[in-house]
Design goal:
Distance between the termini: 85 Å
Radius of gyration: 36 Å
Number of strands: 0
Helix content: over 70%
CATH architecture: Up-down Bundle
Largest sheet: none
Number of helices: 5
Order of helices and strands: HHHHH
Strand content: under 5%
Number of domains: 1
Length: 219
């Protein structure tokens, strides 16, 4: 199913905005993770991990699902298809993988935020959690950069399903055209017969034609 041009542009805009926003949100999360690990100010450390929890829950998670959903709509509703090209399939798998890892690590992000909110901060435990978050944020940013590059360059390469669909399409189009041509020819033949009518020789010999004058009486 191919979307209408306006709907396709709207879906493309939503996908680009959500994908770019996701990269920016993860970059901000990464900056806060670095600040939480390197700062010697306890207030700065607390604020960094609390902000990371808010960004992850209300920004990164929402943009990740939006990017995944709009990517699916773009694939299904355009001629690119979902399983026809390797670059589309790789983009989908990487985005899904990053979203699943984010869901798994939400507990760790919440744990670090709870530690930072305590009266006495355990710097050792908080540092251990911060290192894990820094590693995962860096890996997530690199993973999500790959779909962005693939969307720009669109490297060639079709899956077996894509090759099969590509070869089926001309055969289907040829069959439709042949059916239309046969139907048109039959209608044209029927119209020609209905206009011309049966030949005069086939009519009754004693039937008078509309333009024939009556025979005068003898004498």
């Amino acid at each position: 199913m191919t979307m209408a041009p306006r709907l396709r542009k709207f879906a493309l805009t939503a996908h680009v905005v959500s994908s770019v926003g996701l990269l920016g949100a993860i970059a901000g999360f990464l900056a806060l993770a670095v600040a939480g690990l390197t700062s010697q100010n306890d207030q700065m450390v607390r604020a960094a991990y609390l902000a990371m929890d808010l960004i992850a829950r209300f920004v990164i998670l929402a943009l990740a699902f939006a990017s995944l959903l709009t990517g699916l709509i773009q694939s299904v509703g355009t001629p690119w298809g979902l399983f026809r090209h390797y670059w589309v399939l790789v983009r989908l798998l990487l985005t899904a993988f990053a979203t699943i890892v984010l869901l798994v690590k939400m507990e760790l992000i919440g744990y670090a935020a709870r530690l930072s909110a305590e009266t006495t901060v355990s710097r050792a435990d908080l540092r251990a959690a911060g290192i894990q978050l820094l590693i995962h944020a860096s890996g997530g940013l690199l993973v999500l950069l790959v779909p962005a590059v693939l969307a720009i360059y669109k490297p060639p390469g079709m899956t077996r399903y894509g090759w099969r669909k590509q070869h089926e399409q001309p055969a289907l189009s040829q069959s439709i055209l042949s059916s239309w041509a046969a139907n048109f020819q039959a209608r044209h033949h029927w119209l020609a017969e209905s206009v011309s009518g049966p030949p005069i020789s086939a009519q009754e010999p004693d039937r008078k034609l509309p333009c024939q004058l009556p025979t005068p009486p003898p004498g």
